[in-house]
Amino acid sequence: MPEQLRISVKNPPTAQLAYDRELALRRLNGELSLFRDLVGFYFEDSGRYLDEGRLHLTGEGLSDFARAMHRLRGLASNFEARPLVDAVQLAEDAARGSQLEEAKRLFVIVEQEVERLRDALEGDRRLDVA
Questions:
Q1: pLDDT confidence of residue 126
Q2: Are the C-beta atoms of residues 87 and 13 closer than 8 Å to each other?
Q3: How far is Cα 25 from Cα 10, in angstroms, rounded to an integer?
Q4: pLDDT tens, 73-92?
Q5: How far lies 106's CA from each of 26, 30, 52, 69, in Å?
Q6: Which residues contact 130 (CB under 8 A, 6 or more apart)?
Q7: Whole-angstrom Cα distance, residue 39 to residue 41?
Q8: CB of 125 within 8 A of CB of 36?
Q9: Counting Cβ atoms within 10 Å, is residue 63 exposed (0-12), middle (13-18) or buried (19+)?
Q10: Residue 49 in contact with residue 72, Cβ under 8 Å?
Q11: DSSP state of 116
Q12: Phi, then psi, of 2 in degrees rounded to 5
């Protein structure tokens, strides 16, 4: 079984940093104002995408769940947030494969990783990332 598929609620991918600040800033050419804008978008939108995902985490709503996860993955990828991006990708894939129970299991991990990234970004926002 590939390593990424071994993600579980008891063994989340927390051994990795929530995101790669250096790489994220490098992708933005060191533009701190753009980084701060992206952080603001994350704080505004991540909760909404989680709410949409939670609402549609049903057998009939899996395509809408997958769309919400896809949006969340795009948002997280701005920060090189590998643990979150990977968990969201797996949840999205499970939904697209009509694997409701697997999508539910992975969604718990997605929620944990969203919060972990939020905490890391909040800490860096207060430190005025340099």
A1: 66
A2: yes
A3: 31
A4: 999 999 999 999 999 999 99
A5: 30, 33, 15, 11
A6: 32
A7: 5
A8: yes
A9: exposed
A10: yes
A11: H
A12: -60, 150
Token representation of residue 82:
């590998």
Amino acid at 12: P
Residue with token string 């990332």:
129
Give the span between the Cα atoms of 87 and 8, in whole angstroms: 10
pLDDT exceeds cutoff 90 at 116: yes
Residue type for position 110: V
| The two structure tokens encoding residue 89 | 């990708």
The token pair that represents 41 in the structure block = 């978008």
DSSP 38-94: HHHHHHHHHHHHHHHHHHT-SSSSHHHHHHHHHHHHHHHHTTT-HHHHHHHHHHHHH
The encoded tokens of residue 40 equal 């603001």
